[in-house]
């Protein structure tokens, strides 16, 4: 190395130091680009028959690899170039920052690739996707939390490389000083959502694709980020809620332990309708429906009101959407049957006696 430096100094003895330094750094940059291309091709060949994780890692780290090799070659160029002490210090500091950013970049990329490959074995579009929703939710939340931690550590390492910021960072880590307290209070909402995300990933009150009743709206969990949850409503609107909402406030989760649900159909009929016959016909309608999962059917008179009786029908289906459609199907077919077979059983206001009295008074008049 010393011989190479002396030869370069003799070759460029007639030129200013800044020109020599510029040429050396340019050569280091070009050599770094060439080395990166060769190394990338070699790694691509080596991982052709390996697992998907390694192939994806090589493809996704093309730019980080270039940054790593350029950092290495430029550091050698900085040593060779006849730079002043101040310029050398600035270059080494810049290369140190590139190295720190490189580590964070590669860690974030590797984390994303691992999560993506891991989640390939789970299908959210399956009929029974409870296990898939569980793993997808945990993995996505933990990935975002880990990514936030990686970014925070990278930024902290970059800032700590400056002497002034290093002292400030130490005071923050020690929880000392008014500035640290003010910053902690300012970051309280973000930290609150961060810990809420960890709690959601562990306890899982909600998962991706869960069917919810929240704020009086029905929808499915479409996305869970590190700070908020997106619920896709039945009419394609999006309801965005902070993570801590699902820790602090009550809501309905229709798919907490499974997607199957029991639906209720309420019918109000006259006392004259034969309940046993109605039960047989309703059971026939339900069994003929392709949406019914064959588990739950029940028809019972649940209340007697002053003019009608209340009949409750319970049916089950494999998902919330199918349960809703099955309820509508039962209502339509049952009303069609009652209209044809027992039209007098439909609720009506009985004023026959009043009509007779009115007719008699009209005749007498």
Automatic annotation (TrEMBL):
The chain crosses the membrane at residues 18-43, 94-120, 141-162, 168-187. GO terms for cellular component: membrane. Gene3D superfamilies: 1.10.287.1260. One of its GO terms (molecular function) is mechanosensitive monoatomic ion channel activity. It holds the Pfam family MS_channel_2nd. Keywords: Membrane, Transmembrane, Transmembrane helix. This is Mechanosensitive ion channel protein MscS.
